[in-house]
Design brief:
Helix content is about 45%, strand content about 10%. The protein is of the alpha/beta class. Helix 6 runs parallel beside helix 7 and helix 14 crosses helix 17. The longest helix is centred in the last third of the chain and has 19 residues. The relative contact order is 0.11.
Length: about 375
């Protein structure tokens, strides 16, 4: 099967994550081995207007080795201009979003809507590829809905239009994240195409990633929700072994992330306000981490994706105070933890503050603490 270009030396990419793919989080992923990273989805029309908010999404951190900008566009002229601007801003490649399922995007004729207009999609890709010298990539879903799966047709058009790489998220727009990703269909697309194809969907552990690649023959795997839950998944995939961090080690990761947010937004009241739009939200994903050693969970993963499986939280009643707070699913707890992270100076002080928070926080119902990682992301 076609391999990725030699100058993109990784089979594991960070997906373009709306809200989650902010620069500080991408920087954290790079710390854990991410080589190919991508911006949050930017609306091409707003980039064309050089909207301050949209242009901020194109900003790259110096540590990002291979960085792509993803755009959403419904018109050729918007896509071309945004692509040129992204390259001028330092993008190594530009990705066209043809899979975003959220209403705000599809109502504007972008994202997954393009799956219903494959001819228009092809024209946009061709114009983008013609406009710049860097590679143009495309991310699609399998179709608009289950009775309108047309990924084979769309993939053919994408390839013929000049895309360098195609990513297939193994679900339809209608399915969102409610069903398991169809990696067998991804494999069909891989065998059909002469360009590299990446697979996306339901990879929470390194062994799931390895199995999906073997099953599909894909050139690589794109990590989305799995990276949000544990950004060290990149390191696990590279080493083919699980990292089971202690509560202190996870606190250190969160403290580092808070530091990156401070650097990006500034350590003042305005910066704090901006960072708090992200930090509690991210804590909602971090809280879903559970130790899933290969010897215990590999067989279960082959039966059903761990991302889509609800597990009882073994020993939840015996968790220490810090671990209990780190696993707490409640939004108000995430907001309080975020405030502690912002004020923390070092690990010891943070640990003490979290222990104090645990002492005054009523225990959550056991059913709410269950290891449910079946989360959705727009």
């Amino acid at each position: 099967m076609p391999a990725l270009p030699a100058h993109w030396p990784s089979k594991v990419w960070l997906a373009p994550l709306t809200k989650g793919g902010n620069l500080p989080f991408r920087r954290l992923c790079v710390d854990f081995g991410a080589v190919v990273t991508m911006s949050e989805m930017a609306y091409a029309r707003q980039v064309k207007k050089r909207s301050r908010a949209e242009m901020a999404l194109l900003r790259r951190h110096a540590s990002e080795k291979v960085f792509g900008v993803q755009i959403a566009a419904g018109k050729v002229e918007d896509a071309v201009e945004a692509t040129k601007i992204a390259v001028d801003q330092g993008a190594d490649f530009v990705d066209l979003n043809c899979g975003c399922p959220i209403h705000d995007t599809v109502k504007r004729g972008m994202g997954a809507t393009l799956l219903q207009r494959p001819g228009a999609l092809g024209k946009i890709v061709a114009a983008m590829a013609e406009a710049v010298e860097v590679p143009v990539t495309v991310k699609i879903r399998t179709g608009w809905k289950e009775d309108k799966v047309n990924a084979h047709e769309v993939a053919k058009i994408v390839e013929e239009s000049g895309a360098a790489v195609l990513t297939v998220h193994g679900r339809t727009r209608e399915q969102r994240y409610t069903k398991s990703a169809d990696w067998e269909l991804i494999g069909e697309i891989v065998r059909q195409c002469s360009i590299p194809v990446l697979g996306n969907g339901d990879v929470l552990t390194w062994h799931e990633g390895k199995h999906r690649l073997e099953l599909s023959g894909a050139a690589g795997v794109m990590l989305g929700r799995g990276a949000l839950i544990k950004p060290w998944l990149f390191r696990e995939c590279a080493a083919e072994s699980e990292w089971l961090p202690s509560s202190d080690e996870r606190l250190e990761v969160l403290l580092r992330f808070a530091g990156y947010l401070k650097e990006h937004f500034r350590d003042d009241e305005r910066g704090r306000t901006r960072a708090m739009r992200f930090l509690p939200w991210h804590l909602g994903f971090f809280a879903r981490w559970r130790p899933m050693p290969e010897e215990r969970f590999q067989a279960a993963a082959l039966e059903h994706p761990l991302m889509q499986t609800r597990f009882e939280d073994d020993g939840a009643d015996d968790l220490g105070p810090v671990e209990r707070m780190l696993r707490d699913p409640r939004e108000d707890v995430h907001e309080q933890l975020a405030a502690l992270l912002w004020e923390a100076v070092d690990l010891d002080g943070l640990r003490g503050a979290v222990e104090e928070l645990a002492a005054r926080t009523p225990a959550v119902d056991a059913s709410e603490v269950a290891g449910d990682v079946a989360v959705s992301h727009g």
